[in-house]
Design brief:
The protein is an alpha/beta fold. It has helices at residues 17-27, 49-53, 65-76, 117-120, 133-147, 152-171, 189-208, and strands at residues 5-11, 32-36, 81-87, 92-100, 105-109, 125-130, 180-183. It contains seven helices and seven strands, in the order βαβααβββαβααβα. Helix 1 (17-27) packs across helix 7 and helix 5 (133-147) crosses helix 6 (152-171).
Length: 211
């Protein structure tokens, strides 16, 4: 298999990145390795839970960038990786991992994937998913309470103290690096049709090339 087609998918929390990512995976006929940036939060075993709970998880320093780059490079070279699993309820890296096999398409998804120059340099296509702030907040509230064991008050406090300030400082400015900006995420049928056709063609071309 030839080198995979790398897609960077960024956008604010609750912008619809996951929905767009699912569309792209389907366009790759399921032959895609998905790397969620938030699986690469740094582990903080030395800190008590109370300190981990108030860590700023929306700034670049919260992520283990060297490990993420190492895994991206391995997949580009045709080698499998064991990506970490993050326990959002405990704010710790779990003991388990998920094995990702090489694939014709690699999707790197997260709020800050277009902020990091070293990560951008590895991408063939950079996509930024946009959505109104109030809609993003509602989606985050629903997700964190339902899936991550958070209370509404803790979600609101985190949004006020770190999520919104870091979005304005790091996430929103990274939109300038995008090749394609998708307003309204997966509900933007025209953008989804263009992206789907493009990814289908890239997958087919890579499958047809000699290894």
């Amino acid at each position: 298999m030839s080198a995979p087609f790398l897609i960077g998918l960024a956008g604010g929390t609750g912008s619809g990145k996951t929905t767009v990512g699912d569309v792209l995976v389907r366009a790759a006929a399921g032959q895609a390795a998905v790397i969620p940036q938030d699986a690469y939060y740094k582990d903080q075993p030395e800190k008590p839970f109370a300190e981990r709970e108030v860590t700023n998880y929306d700034e670049p320093a919260a992520f283990d960038l060297p490990l993420l780059l190492q895994h991206v490079d391995a997949l580009k070279a045709g080698r499998p990786v064991d990506r970490p699993v993050y326990d959002f309820a405990q704010h710790r890296r779990a003991d388990t991992t998920v094995t990702l096999a090489p694939a014709p398409v690699v999707l790197i998804e997260g709020i800050l994937v277009l902020h990091e120059p070293a990560l951008r340099a590895r991408m063939d296509l950079k996509v930024f998913v946009d959505a109104p702030p109030d809609e993003r907040f509602i989606r985050r509230m629903q997700r964190d309470v339902r899936e991550r064991g958070r209370t509404p008050d803790s979600v609101i406090e985190q949004y006020r103290t770190t999520v919104k300030p870091m979005h304005d400082l790091f996430v929103q400015p990274s939109k300038q690096h995008a090749d394609l900006i998708v307003p309204e995420g997966g509900q933007n049928t025209a953008a989804m049709a263009v992206l789907t056709a493009f990814v289908e063609r890239q997958r087919a071309e890579r499958e047809a090339r000699p290894a």
